[in-house]
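This follows on from our talk about sequence and fold. Can you supply me with one protein entry, sequence and fold together? Could you add the entry underneath, on a fresh line?
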Amino acid sequence: MASLFLHHHRPRVVDPLPDEALGLHKGRGGQGMKAFIHELTLLAALAGSVLFSGCTRGEVDVIRPEWPESVLELAAALPVQDGGRIKPFQTYADFSLLPLNGKRKVVFADKVKMSGMEWLLNTIVFPEYADDYEVFLVRDSAVIDAIGLPREGKKKSDRYSFNELMPGFRRLSQLGDQYGRIEQKDRDTIQEQIVLLASNVNHYSYLRGMLEFARFSHSLEVQGDDERALDIFDDPKNVKFSDVLANLGRIVEVHEELRDSGEDAAAGALGDTFTSAVESVAVTGVLAAMIPPPASAAEEAEWLTPQDLLDQAFVPGWTLAEEHLRALRGFEGLVASREDFHAFERELSALQGTLSALAGARGEYQEIPLELHYYKGKYVANSQVLFILSFVLMAFMWLFPNTKLLYRGTMLAVIVAMGYLIAAIVLRCIIRGRPPVSTLYETILFVTAGWALVSVVTEFINRKRIMLSAGAFLGMLGLFLANKYELVDKQDTMPSLVAVLDTNFWLATHVTAITAGYSAGLLAALISSLYLLAKLFGLLFGFKKGDKTFYRNIARMSYGVLCFALIFSLVGTILGGIWANDSWGRFWGWDPKENGALLIVISQIAILHARMGGYLRQHGLQMATAFAGTVIAFSWFGVNLLGVGLHSYGFTNGIHQALWTYYFIQWGIVAAGGVALLVERRVADALKA
């Protein structure tokens, strides 16, 4: 009977636009009627935005509610399930803003800054204000021209508000769908930016509708003396979505009674109340789920949205849990009290308590405070600042080699920076319950920490300042790369893993071993590059010319690190084969990534055997080791660009140019080393003659 009721009162949408035309991300529950209603919401926003289509920068007053810090802290600690993992609302806010804005903060024309948490609160609570915030980064004004919008007063690369973009929404959607059908590697720059902008606008439209169900308020009016429909609700003049869901069984029962008794008008009014409630859920953004189910995490991993609760309401025997009713009313309370921040804080505190208790009962809340601490502590950012400081001190250390204070300051800066970075890695391991290396971002952090640690330990052994300098440089470079990766990838750096990587044992063994081996190989290549550059500078400027001990020490360091790299690369490759046999049923399949791993091991073995056989001496060994760095870079990252094989899940965006830059730099250093060797031999032959 309930299903017949739902079918009879399903909202009807005439001639909806297809999902493909709008490029919609359906997400959970984003199909059928829900997607249709969402499309109409976008069109309504389009109609409203015409009022602002003629405005230039500064003509629209931007309203920025000033949230109390206590409210921001409560909102930040709300648990949310997004991308398959439980995270704080703060993390969700930051990584929702980053793809749109290119930053985790909004900077207004008057230089006022707004955090990601403030921005998301405004977006979901005051969408009419947030629609005027210029958060959509458009890097080329040709994109704006393509969708037919004016750009007076804008720079070539500038930010636009939702209201500014809405007049061109239909054209943007059409172009986004058209270019989205083209392979990413075949799109030109403008096409790629149009696809990205269409996706960002669509993403924002879901965010701004996150609390649409909580805004639902319906006045039930029944003509005649039959008040059975009115008796269902405590306040028939202000029926909320939670009221409909909590009394759904009674609504269906009374509806059928009214129809059977000929009270069609009353039955229709009651049905309209239900239909309106369903529509409010249909336009609610479903990018994330915020309601933990009552079952354990093992029994039901997916969290719930209002749409999920509505769907479950039609399962025979289902009743709305008291905690879920409190959660729904908590969200409704936020909307109702949005003009009074004190009342809003009370509602938010109660909601946070309800959701955290539900998540805590499932064992899914304990990492939320730790993740908040991780981001608030800015461990990686502080490490980067200290590595930059150590690099500056290192430069002065070489300019004034007799000043011990500079040496000690550089050493202290590197050690403290390394401590921050290691602390960040440890915190990430605890938060995720994973080994230190499971994503490319974590690989960069792990490699950078490893480089710094090896550099510091080696420096304590030989006190030559070479490895200390390398540690400062590599630490700064590594964290610049990590920051660049985050800006290019624009996603949560603690994502859920693809199925084949979802294993702590192999992540802790194969991935960690192979990462240690490859990073050590790159470190050996850097040390050898320093040797070759020092030789070149010695010929050109007399740097350490004739100092055989200096060059012998560098060569010994490079050789030792190369041996370390070979051991871990070999062990990691063998473990990878065992993992492949466990996951894919074969030890070796000549996959590009497997071939690359084999190429690295063969190249390192060849270098060491050539040294043992006397084919490579000190200088030649350094040239070969420096060249081997490009072999590692190609095999580690370059094969991902092929887009084929079972390992094609690796990150590829933005690395093509970086790889070729590294290749040419290393090849140039090797060539310079060869020139230095030839000149050195000719000078030696001339002296003998």
